[in-house]
Design brief:
By secondary structure, the protein is α+β, with helices and mostly antiparallel strands. Helices cover 37% and strands 22% of the residues.
């Protein structure tokens, strides 16, 4: 979860969320342990949404994802054509 948050922060996200089945006890336990808040998922009663603010600032991010994103910005690597 921390790596996902780190990667999201590296790209400027301020919040992160996910939806999981209400029956997915392992994912719910993981999100709860990581400090996520829970709300009903819009549009599907079988899902639960977990979300939280990203507390990391880009300059404070130690993860490999941030280093990769920073390096690609410095090198001005163009995006892949779709």
């Amino acid at each position: 979860m921390k790596n996902l948050e780190c990667r999201a922060a590296a790209f400027g996200a301020e919040r992160i969320f996910g939806d999981t089945l209400r029956s997915n006890e392992q994912m719910i336990a993981l999100a709860r342990k990581a400090g996520y808040a829970f709300t009903p998922s819009p549009g599907d009663w079988k899902l639960v949404r977990f979300e939280r603010e990203i507390e990391l600032q880009p300059r404070d991010i130690p993860c490999a994802s941030w280093k990769l994103a920073a390096a690609s910005r410095q090198l001005a690597i163009p995006p892949l054509a779709s």
